[in-house]
Design a protein that fits this description.
The complex is a heterodimer of chains A (110) and B (117). Chain A is mainly beta and 110 residues long. Helices cover 0% and strands 44% of the residues of chain A. In chain B, the strands form two sheets. In chain B, strands 2, 4, 5, 6, 9, 10 and 11 form a seven-stranded mixed sheet that branches. In chain B, strands 1-3-8-7 form a four-stranded antiparallel sheet, with no helix packed on it. Classes of the chains: A mainly beta (110), B mainly beta (117).
Chain lengths: 110, 117
């Protein structure tokens, strides 16, 4: 299984919005609404911020939102804050009952 | 609140076996059906290694399937990872996590394993 495709980096000023794309295939992203997003700060474990494409775990601000169209899922961070500066990874369940991650996107708050 | 903690040797010799344990606290491991392992080579992205179903099934990343085994010790409230025939490419931070639907909600802090002689 090949890694899902994400942009290497995105950036925005505080208060702006950024969107990260995650492109897979019909065997993973496109086939099921089973895409998750994780935030990872340097030296820390990943933290779940979205699951099932659009759902937020308790405690995750509604500034984080998700969507999907065809084989591409997207994470939008609205009202950027300095603490949003981190690496973001998408992850999709696959038709083989395995999981595949995206290549990761570094978000920089200018 | 569930907490997970990885433990094991930080250094493994090439061609040897990497063995890690994930201790689950704050709840019974039997309360949730699926548990997973991941890894992240230094400066690189996350990789799912495999998952274990407490009632006996397991699934592995096709790229690692021939070398990996995940098992559970319910009385000790822990699950384990073994990777055989390791090489430099297996050097990584290894994480354990609890499956949450088709995602993962609680993660350990991670443990760095270096493959070197």
């Amino acid at each position: 299984q090949s890694a899902l495709t994400q942009p290497r980096s995105v950036s925005g000023s505080p208060g702006q919005s950024v969107t990260i794309s995650c492109t897979g295939t019909s065997s993973d992203v496109g086939g099921y609404d089973r895409v998750s997003w994780f935030q990872q700060h340097p030296g820390k474990a990943p933290e779940l911020i979205l699951y099932d494409v659009t759902r937020r775990p308790s405690g995750v601000p509604d500034r984080f939102s998700g969507s999907k169209s065809g084989n591409t899922a997207s994470l939008t961070i609205s009202g950027l804050l300095p603490e949003d500066e981190a690496d973001y990874y998408c992850c999709s369940h696959t038709g083989s009952n395995t999981y595949v991650f995206g290549s990761g996107t570094q978000v920089t708050v200018l | 609140q569930v907490q997970l903690q990885e433990s094991g040797p930080g250094l493994v010799e090439p061609s040897g076996t990497l063995s890690l344990t994930c201790d689950v606290s704050g709840g019974s491991i039997s309360s949730y059906d699926w548990w997973s392992w991941f890894r992240q080579p230094p400066g690189k992205g996350l990789e799912w290694i495999g998952q274990m179903y407490l009632r006996g099934d397991s699934n592995y990343n096709p790229s690692l399937k021939s070398r990996v085994t995940i098992s559970v010790d319910k009385p000790k409230n822990q699950f384990s990872l073994k990777v055989n025939s390791v090489t430099d490419a297996d050097t990584a931070v290894y994480y354990c996590a609890r499956n949450f639907g088709f995602s993962f909600d609680y993660w350990g802090q991670g443990v760095l394993v270096t493959v070197s002689s």
